[in-house]
Amino acid sequence: MPVQLAYAIITPYSLHKSRTGGIIARLVARSGLEMAAARMFAPSQELIRQYADSIVSAQNPQDRRVQELLKDYILRSFAPDPKTGRRRRVMVLLFRGEDAVQKIRSVVGNFGIHQLGGETIRDTYGDLIMDENGQVRYFEPAVLAAPTPEEAAFKLKLWTRFSDTDGGVVDNAIAYEPSETPQRTLVLLKPDNFRFASGRPGNMIDFFSRTGLFIVGIKVHQMSVAEAMEFYGPVRETLRKNLGTVFGARAREVLEKEFGLTIPNAEEQHLGEILGPIFGERQFENIVRFMSGRSPSECEPSLMTQPGTEKCIALIYEGVNAVRKIRDVLGPTDPTKAPVGSIRREFGSNIMINAAHASDSPESARREMNIVKVGENNFKRLAEEFYGRA
Length: 390
Hints:
This protein has 390 residues and is an alpha+beta fold. It folds into 3 domains: 3-168 and 375-387, Nucleoside diphosphate kinase-like domain (Alpha-Beta Plaits, 2-Layer Sandwich), CATH 3.30.70.141; 184-218 and 321-369, Nucleoside diphosphate kinase-like domain (Alpha-Beta Plaits), CATH 3.30.70.141; 227-303, no CATH class. The protein contains 15 helices and 10 strands. It has helices spanning 12-16, 20-31, 45-53, 64-77, 100-108, 121-125, 149-161, 200-208, 225-231, 233-259, 265-292, 322-330, 343-347, 362-372, 378-387; strands at residues 3-10, 34-41, 90-98, 127-130, 136-140, 143-144, 182-189, 214-221, 312-320, 356-358. The chain has a 4-stranded antiparallel β-sheet, with helices on both faces. A hairpin with a 5-residue loop joins strand 4 (127-130) and strand 5. Helix 2 (20-31) runs antiparallel to helix 8, helix 3 (45-53) packs antiparallel against helix 4 (64-77) and helix 10 (233-259) packs across helix 11 (265-292).
């Protein structure tokens, strides 16, 4: 069966109600597909109009009346706020794999006028409420997905054409009080969450939703060796300096046991000064390899700036005290010291394989966002590689 691209669009309401993590967890875990790209949009009126016009289709298995409801919903709920003109946030996810369109559609589910059936995303997060006269009182689809490969291709090409002008890191999407000063911070869901298709990435996003912050940027990223070295550069010298004491004591213990020597404290310190930087450098190499799939010393120069073999998800969160709130939910670097209910306690294994990274200050966030470039349009690149230029 040929590989397909499928999309899932998380609606502004689902994003606003912080249902994003639960939806992503179901899409990945239940479909078994690779989440290959993701991008935030603030749709323009033209994108909304063209997308809405494509909704009603004879090939769509949903009831024609539901299709009309979806079209009307898109025109109303994806449009900028009529009072302020502020555009609304929409998240578009791309999935790749065999029979991807049908698998995503099955996880999302269909609405029926008379009843709902099956354990789908729409069963949990969507609503179609009718009154006793058969009139629609409330409608929220939660997620949108194409019914056929042909429609998936057509609609994905449409979103791709607008992905530069209407997509990226979304600005001015959130209203704040005059006294509030929002921050932005970076979160990386690390490669250990992507060894196989699972709900882990979505479940962690669900944890972060407790902060009340807003996702304004998302990117599926494969960190290059050069990016990993720059990203973790501040840690490098710390490792070289701080591991001297640890390694000096370990070297003393091994040497005394192996050779029956008695090594004075001064010599232990000297061993740490000599061997600590070497040990620290090895640890730094391990970090770079973990994040990118390649270690610097073993990497061909031509591969240094190429995308790595490991995947992570980069997210930008926005809101008041964003840095502190995200760090509080994440927990300390060592998962064994993280409090119950924190992400690293729940999902981390050790100091390196600790589920996620979050910026430790607004200054670090700006530096790290410049490295990862969450606004970079690899969404468009993937679609164009798959379909050709739209």
